Amino acid sequence: MKRREFIKAAAIVGAGVVVAPGIARDAFAGPDGPLVIQASGKDPAKITREAVNALGGMKAFVKKGETVVVKPNIGWDRNVEQAANTHPAVVAAVVKMCLEAGAAKVKVFDRTCNDARRCYTNSGIAAALEAIKDPRVEVTYIDERKYKDMPITGGKTLSHWPVYEEVLSADKFINLPIAKHHSAAVLTMGMKNVMGVIGGNRAQLHKGIHETLTDLNRIVKSHLTVVDATRILVANGPQGGRLEDVRVMDTVIASADVVAADSVAATLFGKTPKEVRYLQFAHDAGLGICDVGRMKIKKITV
User: What residues in the chain have per-residue pLDDT under 50?
Assistant: First the structure.
């Protein structure tokens, strides 16, 4: 199935399975583009569930017996309040939904920038997943030996790049970024989050990062993107550290289209795809839709 067809099918299935009739009517009557859910509320786990449910529930994405990679941002030795990593309650909610959908294995990992053990611990993500107490949940550190060089068909700046083998062998890849400022990429969200599953010299990729991010997303396909915007980092990203740079938004954005999810998340910062250029490049490359006028955006307050 072509990506455009998958996005459209996911939107229609999502509208028809468990979503309220009014939402279903809106989904069919809306523009010929992806469905994006923007859920708001004080409980991160609850709004995460509601956002995914409005897309048809996790069973619309994860089938019984599948191996799923859930990829949060765990890159930084920061606590929850500092908004550098995905909120642990959002991560735990997505993992639980995968298990409820019948996943045989849910793997969680990230190629961190700071010491991996400190990142996993101080982010609160390791503890949140341990509390689930399900043997199907596998939280691991990156094994630098587990990369496979992959050709990038149609790449504009990259012809190949190593990708983590656990991602390549998984049935589904769920992209679970936090939305925040980035000094090189303007914003880091779903498309940027795939850098946590690629090998090689990542610093090299920051030269022409808008083009390289587009190429990387040609080979790392996100089946579902859930953007954590419960609190966003508006300056000094991606590492942050100052609480005065954090804005509480109490929002989660979900879509089968990573470009669409990121484009809607960018609006929380007052940014357009023309300012976050990799979104426009990805749109032009046929990887997703960045034009909010072509999306069906459904806002939910929980």
Answer: 1-30
Query: Which amino acid is residue 206, in one-letter code?
Result: H
Token couple for 27: 């989904």
> How much is the pLDDT for 32?
72
Tell me how far apart the alpha carbons of residues 159 and 146 are, in angstroms, rounded to a whole number.
Answer: 20
Whether this model's pTM surpasses 0.85: yes
Residues 6+ apart with CB under 8 A from 25: none
Cα gap 60→52, rounded to integer Å: 9
Q: What CA dihedral angle connects 25, 27, 29 and 31, to 10 degrees?
A: 170
Please, which residues have CB within 8 angstroms of residue 203's CB and are 6 or more apart in sequence?
A: none
5 phi/psi in degrees, rounded to 5: -65, -40
Instruction: Tell me the percentage of the chain whose pLDDT exceeds 90.
Output: 87
Q: What share of the chain is helix, strand, coil (3-state, %, to 5)?
A: 40, 25, 40
Which H or E element spans position 163?
A: strand 160-164
Can you give the pLDDT at residue 17? Answer: 31
CA pair distance 148, 102, nearest whole angstrom: 28
Residue with tokens 């990729």: 205
Inter-residue contact 230 to 249 (CB < 8 Å): yes
φ and ψ at residue 72, rounded to 5 degrees: -85, 175
Q: Kindly report the backbone phi and psi dihedral angles of residue 37, in degrees, each rounded to the nearest multiple of 5, phi listed first.
A: -105, 130
List 69's β-bridge partners, or say none. Answer: 107, 173
Contact assessment for residue 75 and residue 119, using Cβ atoms and an 8 Å cutoff: yes
Q: Give the DSSP H or E segment for 4.
A: helix 3-17
CA 86 vs. chain centroid, Å, equals 10
Find out whether 252 and 230 touch, Cβ atoms under 8 Å.
Answer: yes
142-143-144 Cα angle (round to 5): 105
